[in-house]
Amino acid sequence: MGAPFKDRFSSAPSAYRRYRPAYPATLFTYLASLTARHDAAWDCATGNGQCAAALAGHYERVFATDASREQLSRAIMARNVSYSVSDARRSGLGGRSVDIVTVAQALHWFAGEAFYDEVRRVLKPGGVVAAWTYHLPTVAPEIDRIVHRLYHDVLGDFWEPEIRHIETGYRELPFPFEEIAVPAFGLTANWTLTELRGHIRTWSAAAVRKNRFGTGIPEDVLSGLLEAWGDDRSKRRIEWPLVLRAGRVA
Questions:
Q1: Is residue 8, in this structure, part of any structural domain at all?
Q2: 17 or 11, higher pLDDT
Q3: Total structural domains in the chain?
Q4: What is the residue-averaged pLDDT of the chain?
Q5: 112 φ/ψ sector (left φ>0, alpha ψ -120 to 50, else beta)
């Protein structure tokens, strides 16, 4: 049946919704161009519904599922989006019922034959599956050095094995579909330091460390970020490398 659900995001669903970067509209326009029909989409591991709400502008119905009831309690509402609590391997959807399956920043947690069998079951013939991820933010050299130190040295022992797939850009992740050559997409935001700090606090390793020691990000790291940033009310451009993999069922 696969590994049990590792719940690293239910403790602060509001922060997850507020401090995760928005995916570019061009990504969803491109994904919609890959499917002949636009009747239905399944957004698996939807989290706060960011991806589901964007798909709603391209598909008549969007079924959005997540194993975390707390995350769904803060999900973005849209007229044609239906949210439900379910495991990624058991969607509850009918066979051959959707045109596309999407997984945003989550496939590394449950990639495996049980999930891929479910994708094959629910997709229409020729349907598309698309998954994407992003890694560390890039701001400026003096800030990036602190973020890298935090990631590798402070939180290094708290990252779970699945995170290696983000680090390798999903290149080593099983993806048993007829792969589609995809264009590059950028993921950017204009954030204050408060927003960047909030984003870092949503990292899964920060949640693991907080559960163990009572604090996720040490104060010296936060003060170092403030010193490097300058005026914490000023906004800076932040970029993440966005990696997309897409394929079709036979």
A1: no
A2: 17
A3: 1
A4: 94
A5: left
d(CA 80, CA 56): 6
- Pairing mode, if any, of strands 123-134 and 185-191? unpaired
CATH number of the domain within which 152 lies: 3.40.50.150
With a cut of 70, say whether residue 59 has pLDDT above it. yes
Question: pLDDT (tens digit, 9 = 90+) per residue, 152-196?
Answer: 999 999 999 999 999 999 999 999 999 999 999 989 999 999 999
Residue 237 backbone dihedrals phi, psi, to 5 degrees:
-80, 130
Q: Quote the pTM value.
A: 0.93
